[in-house]
Amino acid sequence: MDPWDRFRTVARGGQADRVPVALIVDSPWLPGYAGVDTLDFFLDFERWFDIHHGLLARFPEVAWIPGYWVEYGMAVEPSAFGARIAWHHDQPPAIEPLPGGVQQLLKVPPPDPQLHGLMPFVLQHYAKVERRLRAEGTGVKLVCARGPLTITGWLLGMADMMVALMEEPQAMAELLDTVTTTIIAWLRAQQAILQAPEGIMLLDDMAGMISPALFDQAARPFFERIFAAFDGQIKIYHNDTPCPHLLAAFSTLGFDVFNFSHLTDIALVRARLPGIALMGNVAPLERMAMGPAGEVQAAALDCLRKTGGRGLILSAGGGVSPGTPASAVDALVSARDAFEAEAAPAVPGA
User: What is the DSSP code string of 72-123?
Assistant: First the structure.
């Protein structure tokens, strides 16, 4: 099995030949890792492609999720609603909330991925990537979108969104319905570019900041609708906000893989989400980016031992943080190798 085969097998509830090692990587990490200006990373297709392609040669035991991700930080979906973007040379772009609050946003119809904001540029970029990869006999497997609460939070401002969930529930339900329609159309538009798409990743940290009751009332219908729209495909949910209070709610949303915060113990998550593959759970900043390789390996071994390596995709507890060295990624692979060596049955006479 190659790294993607292992990831796919465990994501679908199977047992791979080895524990998969996989990492979510995007523009907060990749330009710094490669030593390039963030704007050049976004604008220079050849450089962008070579950076992504080079990961496969440098780290042959790692699955990169989603792999060749065409993204501009958090800006793509908010840009389609008209949000203003502030670009930087040394970090992903920032988004300015739209004025007017919920009532003004309700006047905006669902964006068309072929026409609005940065979405057409992403689709054109994917078309170029896919042509290049098809010539090599492969292709992009996964596409991504930010989740309904995260997108709405960027459009309104995070604090204002939280207030609106409590004070304007009907208006927020209408807005979240529009955002959800956009997410599904956006994911489908990306998949339509690809030759053999196998799944989606939804990223929504804001869901972790509300109560179980408010999640069921205000958010659950939209998450369920998104995951149900891609029935039969691999569905990954990323939420690295510590939210053990929501694990019971998450267990029935319909996703296959959960990437979650290192601050939530992996043994607890395993107990609460028994049928879902866990992607984690090494601290992305304190260990992966800032700690020595030995600490990364020790933390990874702890995850492996707590789960027995079953239903586990060894990873960071979130995306790869800026400044993470290659040695930290190597340490994850080394931990996997060490765990499998210690778990292997003794050979008689050896």
Answer: BTB-HHHHHTT-EEE--SSS--EEEPPTTHHHHHTTSPPPPTTTSTTHHHHH
**Distance of alpha carbon 222 from alpha carbon 241, whole angstroms:** 19
- Look up residue 83 and give its two tokens: 């949000």
CATH 3.20.20.210 fits 3-339, yes or no: yes
pTM here is 0.96
Return the C-alpha torsion angle 120, 122, 128, 132, nearest 10. -160
CA distance 48 to 111: 27
Element (H, E) at 266: helix 266-272
Contacts 24+ apart (CB under 8 A), 269-272: 269/244, 270/306, 270/307, 270/311, 272/244, 272/247, 272/248
User: For residue 188, with 0-12 CB atoms within 10 Å meaning exposed, 13-18 middle and 19 or more buried, which class applies?
Assistant: middle
Q: What is the pLDDT of residues 18-67, one digit of tens each?
A: 999 999 999 999 999 999 999 999 999 999 999 999 999 999 999 999 99
Q: Where are the chain's structural domains?
A: 3-339
How confident is the model over 221-244, as pLDDT tens digits? Answer: 999 999 999 999 999 999 999 999
Instruction: Give the residue among 100, 115, 112 at the shortest CA–CA distance from 178.
Output: 112
